[in-house]
Amino acid sequence: MAMKIRLARAGSKKRPFYRIVASDSRMPRDGRFLEKLGTYNPLLPKDSEERVKMDAERIQYWLDQGAQPTDRIARFLEAAGLREKAVRNNPQKAEPGKKAKERAEEKAAKAAEAPADASAE
């Protein structure tokens, strides 16, 4: 069974609240889970201790059993010191999209034509 440690959404519309759960990866996001491991309330300030609560001992147990944390949970674990900080490198993140590149090329071409017209007069 492929295990995941992930967030399961609770709370009402526009008021998110998440449970940190150990679940079979084939189950739906808010569906059946094996164990509740903590909570995450994104509406609280980032420095609040109540924002992320985890049972570190149980999370470590599930990690030892082979459960894979999702990206968000991995960041929580890094902040709590339960996991080494992973190196993240996305060189395409700052690169503009295809349409933005085309617009920039058109703008550069127009700028190159404009000074040539001004000097002809």
UniProtKB/TrEMBL annotation:
Lineage start: Bacteria, Pseudomonadati, Pseudomonadota, Alphaproteobacteria, Rhodobacterales
GO-annotated biological processes: translation
Composition bias, Low complexity: 111-121
GO molecular function, one term: structural constituent of ribosome
Name of the protein in question: Small ribosomal subunit protein bS16
Biased composition regions of type Basic and acidic residues, renumbered to the chain: 95-110
UniProt KW Metal-binding keyword: no
Similarity section: Belongs to the bacterial ribosomal protein bS16 family.
Pfam families: Ribosomal_S16
InterPro entries per record: Ribosomal_bS16, Ribosomal_bS16_dom_sf
Keyword line: Ribonucleoprotein, Ribosomal protein
GO cellular component: cytoplasm; small ribosomal subunit
Region (Disordered): 86-121
Name of the encoding gene: rpsP
Superkingdom classification of source: Bacteria
